[in-house]
Specification:
alpha/beta, two-stranded antiparallel ribbon, transmembrane, MFS, CoaB-like_sf
Length: 619
């Protein structure tokens, strides 16, 4: 066969092909992990699929093709595979790309070897083939180094005027709840324990500080590898995937990822109901035993639920006549949501459970693109105890148990005598006389220090050594991971709760700038049921308030009257400033502010979808 003297061209093609192909191979497992949460076994099945298809094609098809046709077929298949990987959204697309990669693997190198053999005489064939393969191996070695060094593309840049918001929201508290409820808040670098920051910030007078470092993907991997996944995570993932797939296929509704709010879950459960009324399908990720949609109307009231029921003739239990209409309305809405598969409720218990569930569901929602909405109303504490430092047993108030353990460890063969005790209940420690023994004969005496400490009225007498010092770690901030990696195209809505009106809008804007998401809903602890503020990129701040004529109701549902003196002082419209809590009437608002929040969020989500579609059309 006549040679074409294209040795340099063949070597160059072999080098360039293996450079890109090996770079793709080395980063594919990271891509599938990031997009679909593939573990080693799933990636192994994917690579096994590629190898199986490649071996079938190489044995049955490639050897029958002319070498040049084989190379051209493989290059085209490689380009198609790269195009599919660049726009990857589903596992089906991934396996289609894998099939194209298998075609590439089975054809290109084999065809190039055949062409190279035609370009050399019998005496030169070995050296020429060796040279071509050397160029190929150089490309194979450089590919992984080059492509794993390229920084990831930012899917949402700082200049992108889109609508989304928050991940790990800090929770704030009034001073009396600071330690005991473990609801610690963050104000710049200060804890909110007295209802305000030590250095209040004004959005108008103070520039937003430079962004602190955001948690890296390496830290994300470290956190999730150091903390065990919830036992029910796989079941919840399967439920969420089935739920999302069912609604993504129909095209009529979009799915909401949802988390409960800072206290009992009122904001979250109420918002879920209004999302359902707006036509959304809702995944309600909530803390165990917090309020739930629809049942909240009867599970978080001052009246016992049994007070709504009565016994009917024949021993039947029915709702009281006065409650039947309202109960029937709530029941019908709940049953409609469940029958139409519009509501999926997934519980979590710990902060680690929450982060695992959040990451999994956000990734499952990625194929929805901009139609997905993540509404993060959870009040996540800023500090926690990592699992590797979690105590297994109850924290003891004295060292008496240490002496028992020491005695048990030193001499387990000595007989124990029954101690003489004072009158105590089963949960208290016995008071032992100096001559008493416990746990294999170890003497136990009451010291003056222990006696002082055990006194119920011991506040001024407690020794410093007896005080409990709590050492907590900061909860990882994964909002940037959510925005850039877990759900980069979805709209994300977060909340910012404060107690100081002077810093609310500034803190919301700071969060928006730091994490580059789309919307922060700010609210104050004292007025959260009457007003919120929307802080969004490239939009003026917008206050949403309960109308004056719907501000309050009595227990009978009739609006309360506000005193003339108070009304005169509060007639002025607060405008772009928070309301004065003293101007609010007693009792609950006549309407729920979530009924105003959700339509406004829906409008922004519609705009978010429209902007994404326009951007896609423009290329």
């Amino acid at each position: 066969m006549e040679r074409t003297n294209s040795r340099v061209l063949l070597n160059g093609i072999h080098f360039v092909f293996l450079l890109f192909f090996s770079g793709m191979e080395s980063s594919l497992s990271f891509m599938t992990y990031d997009l679909f949460g593939f573990d080693s076994s799933k990636n192994g099945r994917l690579l096994g699929f590629v190898g199986l298809i490649a071996s079938i094609l190489q044995g049955g098809v490639t050897r029958r093709l002319p070498p040049l046709t084989s190379v051209r077929t493989g290059v085209i298949a490689c380009l198609v595979a790269f195009g599919l990987l660049a726009r990857l959204q589903t596992v089906s697309m991934l396996y289609l790309a894998a099939t194209c990669l298998a075609m590439t693997s089975a054809t290109v190198v084999t065809g190039l070897n055949a062409l190279s053999s035609f370009e050399a005489s019998e005496n030169e064939r070995g050296s020429k083939l060796g040279m071509m393969r050397s160029w190929g191996q150089l490309g194979r070695g450089l590919g992984p180094v080059l492509f794993t060094s390229v920084p990831p593309r930012k899917l949402i840049t700082p200049a992108t005027p889109k609508i989304a918001t928050g991940l790990l929201q800090t929770s704030t508290i009034s001073s009396q709840y600071c330690i005991f409820h473990a609801k610690l808040g963050e104000c710049e670098n200060h804890l909110i324990c007295a209802g305000r920051c030590r250095a209040p910030l004004s959005r108008k007078s103070t520039q937003i500080p430079q962004r602190p470092p955001i948690m890296s993907l390496l830290t994300e991997d470290q956190y999730f590898s150091a903390n065990p996944a919830p036992k029910l995570l796989e079941r919840h993932e399967a439920q969420a995937k089935s739920f999302i797939d069912a609604h993504a296929a129909g095209g009529r509704r979009v799915t909401v990822r949802f988390i409960d709010n800072f206290s009992a879950g009122t904001r979250g459960a109420t918002s879920a109901e209004y999302f359902l009324e707006a036509g959304y399908a809702v995944i309600f990720l909530h803390r165990q035993f917090s309020l739930l949609p629809y049942s909240r109307h009867y599970s978080h009231t001052t009246d016992c639920f049994l007070d709504y029921l009565t016994e009917a003739p024949g021993g039947k239990v029915v709702a009281k006549q006065i409650e039947q209409e309202r109960l029937l309305d709530v029941l019908r809405k709940y049953q409609t949501a469940k029958e139409r598969n519009l509501l999926l409720m997934i519980p979590f218990l710990t902060i680690t459970d929450y982060l695992y569930e959040l990451r999994s569901i956000a990734r499952l929602m990625r194929p929805l693109g901009p139609s997905g909405l993540l509404y993060l109303a959870a009040a996540v504490s800023d500090f926690f105890v990592p699992s590797d430092r979690m105590a297994e047993h109850k924290i003891q108030s004295t060292d008496a148990a240490d002496k028992v353990k020491l005695g048990s460890a030193s001499d387990t063969s000595a007989p124990a005598t029954t101690p003489a005790t004072a009158d105590t209940d089963s949960s208290s420690e016995p008071i032992l006389h100096p001559s008493s023994t416990v746990a294999a004969g170890v003497p136990k005496t009451i010291t003056e220090e222990e006696e002082t400490f055990d006194n119920f009225d011991s506040s001024p007498k407690v020794p410093r050594s007896k005080r409990l010092v709590i050492d907590l770690d900061p909860v990882p901030k994964f909002l940037k991971n959510l925005v850039d990696g877990w759900a980069p195209e979805g709209m994300i809505v977060s909340f910012k709760l404060e107690t100081d009106p002077s810093i609310l809008v500034h803190k919301a804007a700071y969060s928006l700038d730091r994490y580059q998401h789309h919307l922060v809903i700010g609210n104050l602890l004292a007025t959260r049921k009457w007003e919120v503020v929307f802080v969004a990129r490239n939009r003026p701040d917008r206050w949403i308030r309960i109308p004056d004529d719907r501000r309050a109701k009595s227990s009978s549902g009739v609006q309360k009257l506000v005193g003339s003196a108070q009304r005169s002082a509060c007639d002025a419209d607060p405008g772009d400033q928070p309301m004065d809590p003293s101007c609010l009437p007693e009792g609950e608002p006549e309407v729920e502010i979530e009924g105003l929040i959700i339509p406004a969020v829906q409008d922004m989500h519609t705009d978010h979808i429209r902007q994404a579609a326009e951007k896609k059309r423009q290329g």
